[in-house]
Amino acid sequence: MKRLLALLFLLPALGLAQSTTIQTSTVQAGPVTGGTSTGPTSVSNSDGTLTISPTTGAVVASLNLSHANTWTAFQTYTNSDIALLGSSTGFTTFTSANASATNYTITFPAITDTVATLTATQTLTNKTLTSPILTTPTLGVATATTINKVTITQPATGATLTIPDGVTLNAGAGGTLGSNAFTSTAYAPLASPALTGTPTAPTATVGTNTTQIATTAFVLANGGGSTTHTSQVFTSGSSATYTTPANVKWLRVRFVGGGGGSGGTGTGGQTAGSAGGNTIFNSINAAGGNGGAVGGGSRAGGAGGTGGSGTANVRIPGQAGGNATGGSSTVSVGGAGGSSILGTGAPAQIEGSSSSTLAGIAGSNYGAGASGGTGNLVAFDAGAGGGGGEYVELYIQSPSATYTYTVGAAGAAGSVGTGGAAGAAGSAGLIIVEEFY
Q: What is the pLDDT of residue 8?
């Protein structure tokens, strides 16, 4: 029996047996070289566990990494000795840059998070970054309460957003910078700015009278710097031509329509006054005043000229003529003529005689209405006054060489009726052209 046991132990060493089973384990012996065995090449165990003795000190072993292996205790590996194979033939080596005596721990995320390389584009969701340094980041789309989804919260001591030199802060089309939201020592404030250099502003239209800033060009165009100022006055003309003098920078044209005539009086055959003619300069019209009504009719004064065509800088309607009185046992009053900006309407005629009448009075100056004639106290009413002509002003920058114009004629007088008095004619229109060099 003792000889049999000794033989079993000597067989692996002599290379005479290929395997020996001890209890439930199988040891695969290596080949014999020079009479010496290289030791077991594999060990198998039915319960899947293997204990290599001694349990302390250095143990040299080689594992088949094509199988799953599990470590239940802390393992230490030499730096750069752990490598993960890639999907092809390449691999990734784990290398620690820790050169100190302090130990650190890398905690891998759970669930489906991914450890991303910092050289690639990163997407961070619900992450808190403490004092990060971002180089040319793309921060997404702006919302109503953030700047590109990055909210700048003001701390208790105030907040400063620094924009480096050479960098443009673009609010975008339609962007709004709130009240008192921007303060800079490099720019003038809105209140009482102290401008330096040569500031510019839009030049207002000639004749503008508002709180708009007046540039030097505006002042010169309005005659503020002109050394020469001439004018031409036209009291008549139909489709006539005005020629702009040489070197004229701008024109101010003032004109008025013709005044309306007053109505005549009588017991029959009397007529109303006629309307004054429109005054026209460069197709811009100043309407003439309307004629006064006849005595014995409505006795209404003629309406003042208004609503002329074309765009003008200034338009002022003419004054309406006065109404006439009806028959009275004490006095007869013809309607007064309406006035214009450039002319005075004729005064009302008053007659207190039972047998006499007074003719109307023509309007004075330009564009004025005539006063109506009176009736006698027994037989008929007085005539109404004519209306005044409309007044217009034009400011023409960079004038053309010529313009066409027409001066509105005076409204004709109403004719006298039987036993009555005639009305009177209004006054003709007028054009004044002021030339600034």
A: 44
